[in-house]
Amino acid sequence: MARHIGIVACSSEGAALCYRTICLEASAMFGRYRHPEISMHTPSLLDYVQCLEQADWRGVGDLMLRSANKLAKVGADFLICPDNTIHQALPYIEAGLPLPWLHIADAVADAAVARGFRCLALTGTRWLVDSAVYPEKLAACRLEWALPSQDERIELNRIIMEELVCGVIKPESVAYTEQAIRRFQGLGCDAVVLGCTELPLIVTDANSALPTLDSTALLARAAVQRAAQA
Question: pTM here?
Answer without folding.
Answer: 0.93
